[in-house]
Design goal:
Blueprint lengths: L1 H34 L35 E2 L5 H5 L6 H14 L16 H7 L3 E2 L2
Parallel strand pairs: 1-2
Length: 132
């Protein structure tokens, strides 16, 4: 009887150890996906990053800037537009079609002329884009 109890206890601790390892691995995987999503995207150079130092009326730029440049909506490709929040494949095509038919956007607010883009979407896009 003690031999059976020893076997059960040994397997019990092996099962506990396996569960702890799985939990730690899952937590690490979740952390990487949550805090470093670029690892899971194929091309991290196409990720739009907001530039907090961008000002609308400023024409002077610092010579040395460690912040990435804003995405120019007048020259951006469909792939680049798809990296923006709330912009999928179809919306990127609509933006490019509108740009082709009506000319360059004069401001970020001009994106509201594209079907499906409203004021809320504009506010989400504003930190990422510029109309240069």
């Amino acid at each position: 009887m003690t031999n059976v109890l020893n076997a059960v206890e040994r397997y019990y601790w092996k099962a506990v150890a396996l569960l702890v390892i799985l939990i730690l691995a899952g937590t690490g995987f979740w952390g990487v996906r949550r805090f470093a999503p670029a690892v899971f995207l194929g091309e991290p150079d196409l990720i739009a990053v907001p530039n907090a130092e961008h000002s609308q009326g400023s024409s002077t730029k610092s010579a040395i800037s460690n912040k990435p440049a804003l995405l120019n909506i007048n020259t951006a490709t469909a792939e680049e537009l798809e990296t923006l929040p709330n912009i999928g494949e179809r919306m990127a095509e609509r933006i490019i079609d509108h740009r082709t038919q009506h000319g360059d956007f004069t401001s970020v607010d001009a994106l509201q002329n594209v079907k499906g883009i409203g004021p809320k979407t504009i506010e989400k896009l504003r930190p990422f884009v510029a109309a240069k």
